[in-house]
Every structure is written in C-alpha cells, then in structure tokens.
Amino acid sequence: MTQLPFADRVEAGRLLAAELVTHKLQGNVIVVALPRGGLPVGLEVAKAFGAPLDVVIVRKLGVPWQPELAMGAIASGSFQTLDEELIRALRIPRQEIDAVVARESAEVARREKL
C-alpha cells in the first residue's frame, strides 16, 4: 500500500492551506471543492482563509460503448467540454453524445438538489 504524506483528507487540507498561505494570495478568495473527497480538503482551506466554500458537481461524459473512457465532462452551471479529437477519431454520432450529456446532466441536477 502507498504511504501518503498525510493521515486523511482533513490533514491534507490543513497542509494545503498552510502552503497556500505562504503565497500571499491577493484579493477575495473563494474556495471551490468537488463533492466527497474534495470537501474535507476545501473546508480546511476555506477555514484558513476565512473564505466562503462552494461546491461544483462534475460528471464525466463516457464514450457510450466504453463508459470509463472520457469524451468530455459537464459541471454545475451548464459548463461542458468535449474532446472533439477523440469524438472524431471514434466517430461517435452526435445523437449518442447528446444522450450521454442528457443522462449526466440529469445526474448533476439530482446531486445539486441533494
């Protein structure tokens, strides 16, 4: 098993915050975290800066016949990015891309509601 340089995500957040404080960030700071694993880290950073913490829900857009292979991603706020080169190389039809986007968008909306 790999030995990590921190005990858990809370400690990782404290270590990250300590490092970021040394960079003397200018202006207002807002910390954005990804749910589950990123929240404990983000919370510690937000505490260190006295900054607000927000969450962004992100979902991978998997290739229809190989869902672990990402052809793009979507996130809260209607953000979407596609790997056009991969889509062209695999000749993924637009209607299949749209179906994956619709399914994952519904999941983003469900998670945001929670």
Describe the model.
- This protein is an alpha+beta fold.
- It has 2 domains: 9-55; 58-113, Ybab, Chain: A (2-Layer Sandwich), CATH 3.30.1310.
- The protein contains 4 helices and 5 strands; from the N terminus they run H-E-H-E-E-E-E-H-H.
- It has helices at 9-21, 38-49, 84-90, 94-113, and strands at residues 31-33, 53-55, 58-63, 66-75, 79-82.
- The strands form 2 sheets. Strands 3-4-5 form a 3-stranded antiparallel sheet. The chain has a two-stranded parallel sheet with strand order 1-2.
- Helix 1 runs parallel beside helix 2.
- 11% of the residues are buried.
- The mean pLDDT is 93.
Task: List the keywords.
single chain, 114 residues, alpha+beta, Ybab, Chain: A, 2 domains, two-stranded parallel ribbon, 46% helix, 23% strand
Mean pLDDT: 93
Q: What is the overall number of helices? A: 4
Counted up, domains total 2
Overall structural class, as computed from helix and strand content, comes to alpha+beta
User: For the report, how would you describe the main beta sheet?
Assistant: 3 strands, antiparallel
Number of strands: 5
Strand content: 15-25%
| Backbone CA Rg | 18 Å
> Strand order across the biggest sheet?
3-4-5
H/E element string? HEHEEEEHH
